[in-house]
Amino acid sequence: MEEKKTTSISPAKFTEKKYVITLIFVTSLFMCWGIALTMGDVLNKHFQNVLNVSKSQSGLVQFSIFGAYALMGVPAGLFIKKMGYKNGVLLGLTLYAMGAFLFVPAANAGSFAVFRIALFVLACGMATLETVAHPFMAALGDQRTSDQRINFAQSFNAVGAMVGPTLGTHFLLSATHEAGNELVSVKQLYIYIGVVITAIAIAFALVKVPPVTDPHDGAGEVSAVKDDHKTLFQHKHFVWAVVAQFFNVAAQAGTWAFFINYGHEVMHFSDEKAGYFMLPFMGMMLAGRFVGTALMRYIAPNKLLAAFALGNMLMCVLVAQGWGWTSYIALLMINFFFSIMYPTIFSLGLKDLGPKTQQASSFIVMGMFGGAIFPFLMGRIADTNIATAYYLPVVCYAVIFLFGYKLYKLR
């Protein structure tokens, strides 16, 4: 009687020992751009107060930041493809630090336009880091655990998102600042940031990065070989990921940009108190990332994404009612449900793209241009009624629901 042959598939590891140091550094990048991104939301309110710009005009802060993502995504991807992950990280950190130091002449000039130039340069660095960090993190282990690694790293992005508004509120919105010194505090804060980012760049330059093979290359896998003849844009799951990311970041940027305004106008908090509420707001995102990462061991990432999108559609409707604490708690909960969306859309969009993965990452980062447009649109409504403006993100979360429910599928 012939003996049956059995094959056992070993469980996929989170990462390998040789990648641990590199993984720590790459994870720190997620925190770095989380700090800068949420600092922009504090700058919205600060520039309204100090430079006398309207809510819709202050939305141009987000236009400068996310506009850089749209312009820098593809060049950053081409640079990374030619020069490698490590050099891509160093380029991103260099641009980030340069943008931070440009806040010095911007503060000296007291010009909203010059501040936006500084933000644009800084955001070019952020865009480069995002373009490299996601495929880099995916490459630090088995593809089967790439969703877990990216969501884990994005949890530290949430830590940065808590640190950013706390620092910004302390330096920029605190009532203890003397009149006339508000722009001096902006200058000091960004000098500190520039110094820290420069130190990280020097440290990472000294780290020896082990050779990595992008797990999304799918070498030897039937699906990857079969689809080898396709152009990037013939992969429909990737195209829909770009669309979903556009609407996802649009909703995020609009929600975050006017969070402090909502606390001030609906809850009647001082600017400083409303700013400090960004700490629990971003804490909800951190909690959502850890909960979401754990749930993905039992629930398919696309199904969880669709469920969280439905949750946020409901939260936005509640926020738009302006019902005091009920609406404000719903506003805090938006970040819980938002938590897994960016990394999960990113990871689903990169599946089985083989050597096209890095280029695909660039286009998904470009999809963040939604964040450049939406705050201005929300700001136009918020100039009249801040609560009503929160109806707009419902459309965005409907698109994300469709992506998670159906459009993510590999074809």
TrEMBL record:
The keyword Transmembrane applies. It is a multi-pass membrane protein. The chain crosses the membrane at residues 20-40, 60-80, 87-107, 113-136, 156-177, 189-207, 238-262, 274-292, 304-323, 329-350, 362-382, 388-408. Keywords: Cell membrane, Membrane, Transmembrane, Transmembrane helix. Residues 20-411 form the Major facilitator superfamily (MFS) profile domain. GO terms for cellular component: plasma membrane. GO terms for molecular function: fucose:proton symporter activity. It comes from the Bacteria. Pfam families: MFS_1. Coiled coil: none annotated. Signal peptide: none annotated. It is found in: Cell inner membrane. PROSITE patterns: MFS (PS50850). NCBIfam families: fucP (TIGR00885). PANTHER family: L-FUCOSE-PROTON SYMPORTER (PTHR43702). This is L-fucose:H+ symporter permease. It comes from Chitinophaga eiseniae.
